[in-house]
Amino acid sequence: xxxxxxxxxxxxxxxxxxxxxxxxxxxxxxxDTAKIDALTRGEIPIYEPGLDQxxxxxxxxxxxxxxxxxxxxxxxxxxxxIAVGTPSRRGDGFAxxxxxxxxxxxxxxxxxxxxxxxxxxxxxxxxxxxVDGIIRRTRPDADFAVVSNPEFLRExxxxxxxxxxxxxxxxxxxxxxxxxxxxxxxxxxxxxxxILFTNRTTSExxxxxxxxxxxxxxxxINEMADLCEQVGADVQQVARGIGLDRRIGPKFLHAxxxxxxxxxxxxxxxLVRTAQSAGVPTxxxxxxxxxxxxxxxxxAERIIAAAGGSVSGKTIAVLGLTFKPDTDDxxxxxxxxxxxxxxxxxxxxxxxxxxxxxxxxxLLPAVTFCEGPYDTMDGAEVSVLVTEWDEFRALDFARVxxxxxxxxxxDLRNVYRPExxxxxxxxxxxxxxx
Length: 434
Fold this sequence. Notes:
The chain is α/β, with parallel strands linked by helices. The chain has helices at residues 10-21, 33-40, 51-60, 70-75, 98-110, 127-138, 158-163, 175-184, 186-190, 200-231, 235-243, 264-277, 283-306, 335-344, 357-360, 373-377, 397-403, 418-423, and strands at residues 2-6, 25-29, 64-67, 79-82, 115-119, 144-148, 168-171, 195-198, 315-319, 348-352, 368-369, 382-385, 408-411, 427-429. The protein has a 6-stranded parallel sheet, sandwiched between helices. A 6-stranded parallel sheet has the order 11-10-9-12-13-14. A two-stranded parallel ribbon has the order 7-8. Helix 10 (200-231) crosses helix 12 (264-277) and helix 10 packs parallel to helix 13. It starts with a strand and ends in a 5-residue tail after the last strand.
């Protein structure tokens, strides 16, 4: 099939490369000429394991290409995906749909023959109907169907998630559109992937509900971690004990500094605003948003306490800046709350991240960026593990002790066993453990 994808950011590029790998002919579109030129040269603008190779292979096979010419690409397409950004709107937290609506207007002007227009961007309930209306007003003669097809990609595992998903959700009641979507995802039938066909509104809500539920699990275990610290329990054992219940499951039960990234903060807030507008407040999700924001700020207080009550004039080594490993994404990362609070308290910050430093530099201009974990900890009074990259999981603590001025290690991801680090003479602090 011929596919056009409007938006060559994270979702658009991953989706385009994977659809091309399924055998479809895909054109990824973007208004950013520099981005399209770079992609054409084989330069990938985001860090995602395996994506560079997947793009290169499908470009070489002539199944994947890049352009700024939306009209030409969409004119030839049987399916056009809208995969533009939907950031939180400043001031009220609603999803900013201006890019989606602008894309819909441009697509409407150029489509020919029956075309399935798919909202891949994360959008609030009712967006598909608005896109449908925009296209009908712009092109009353157009033959099309608007479909909701939310993405469920984890940064760092996006290709695996696209090719071997837990499920595919398709929101449409148009029979012709259903057949097009079946053909697009036909390779997944071999793996017996569940494909849920529903109406557009339900499909749109599934995405928000899924992310809100996962964010709630994270927030719940973080609150349990705080309780564990007060009563002498071990949050990791609590998580294992409840996660073995198949009704609960073990995933997203890892205590830490709070969730971040491009999805959970934005989507939970958008769901809250959508529910409030509908007159159905979501008190649980509202609490999750509030607790998570507060938790990220509280992490700096933990570090200051570990440093003896003051970090004024002290050097703090920060290991990891991105919101999770295997990505360069700094959006809503806990480090963006922790580091500024430590700087405000008078600390000097040295930091290292395997992939995120280019993104972090303009966001944290007062930080000294280092060449590796040991360089970062050289001369520090406190070292803090913020993001659990693999290269931070087996540090040589004998060497670390020689490098640091005082052996204080704060593990915000519970990577290490407390007794092992303390055997090296460290004051060790973690989350929800004695």
